[in-house]
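Collaborator request, handled under Task 6.
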Amino acid sequence: MARRSLGRQFGWLWAAYAVSAYGSGLGFGAFPLIAVLVLHASPAQVSALSAVGPAVGALIAVPLGPWVEFRRKRPVMIATDLARFSVMMTIPVAYAFNLLSFVQLLAVSAVVAAARIAFNAASGSYLRTLVRPDDLLVASARFESTMWSSTAVGPPLGGAAIGLFGPVTTVVADALSYLFSALGITAIRGREERPRRTGKSRIRPGELLDGWRHILTHSGLRALYLNAVLVNGLIMATEPLLAVLLLRQLRFPPWQYGLAFAGPCAGGFIGSRLARRVVARYGQHRVLRTAGMFRAVWLIGLVFVRPGIVGLVIVMAVEVAIIVNVSMYSPVLATYRLQHTPKDRIARTLSAWSISTSASIAIFTALGGVLAGITSPRTAITVAGLLILASPLLLPRRESPAPRGVAADGGGATASPPSARLRHTALAAELLDGGRGDRREEVDEVAVGVAEQQCPVAPGHRGGLADEVPDEAGQFFVDAVHVVDEELDDHGAVVGRLGGAGREQRDGAGAADRHSAVGGP
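Structure tokens returned to the collaborator:
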């Protein structure tokens, strides 16, 4: 099956994400490693670095949601990438002058966490303007597969680089990846309109909670949000516990420890590639419930890990089972979240979601460390594995009604209303027959409406206009969408190009073809 093209603009956004993802893969675990090898930090300090930095970053990000919402998204993404590049480059500079401190690591960790939340909010909102509704799942799956492939490849290469070139090498690589990401986003062409605010121009205190307000008042999003907070927090809390258990108590060699986590990441590529197919076959709701449940039930298996090859196989099998289901679930969740969030609340909703999950990870990691100190790492992993078994009860039991313009299976857009379809058909036919000058403005208006609604009129699509408009008229609306996307600010040029496209199609088409159905026989 040929790869589905989502356009050059999406390609640049995907490339920018890939560069930063692989950079972060190379830099995975760099801060704790620097804390241990360079600053000789205690275990408590290393745990604090993993928990406090992201928690402070989440707190800083709270007012950023409304701020991002009413800004152009590309400048926000570029600014947050440059901020991460700048702040991370302070670490190798301070290291070179023997000025690096634990407080600096905490501060950099917090700033990076806050910038990541703001970037994710802006990019999620921007993605919805780049691709059609029925391509959201495809786009989200590509981001997911890139994330897992970078996680599989990055840490082993990062470990080798640290061994060859020193402890801050991967921090430099990670920082540069943000710079290249900013350059990739800059390459995206097209004019982005500034979101319009209604009412006062200044951010009101109540707007800080709008993201959470939308999530908690939507039954489907509320259930998925509570599930995500619990599952993400418990899974991530086991990572430092498992590191202590495997490396210190079970004496795993470093190569086995690296293989135990890098190898299973290949399952992320598999799961993300399957997401679109399983949604098409079983529906969005069933996939969310099934993959959401199976991503949680395997964590308890880590309790049975043993020394040697048997233990390595157990860890890898559990990780593969978790990662395949997580990578299948995540793009479906991301698509559902965008579909069920109004355009003017996407950034605030995504910020609220990221802040909550970051806070839950910090809290559960701290609690896990305390419990492990009182009892043992294996006991703390057992408690996490038992608690997460209750998480499927939080998943939505009933399917939420599909939002307007989205098919019930979560795949794509629905047909336009009958009255709109008849009007579009008549105007298209009229322009193809010569296009009276007094109707050109109306034709242009309808073309703009088609582009804004992303009306499914492409040849081969059954439903909506595709069942009612001849081949030439169907192609007319395809041309209309592309032309209006490029020249939305110049309606006169749009009309001229559309009229020319219509005349060329009319002159080159036979009379018999004018009555054939769109999409072939």
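The cover message to the collaborator said: "DSSP finds 20 helices and no strands in the chain. The radius of gyration is 26 Å. Please let us know whether this matches your experimental observations."
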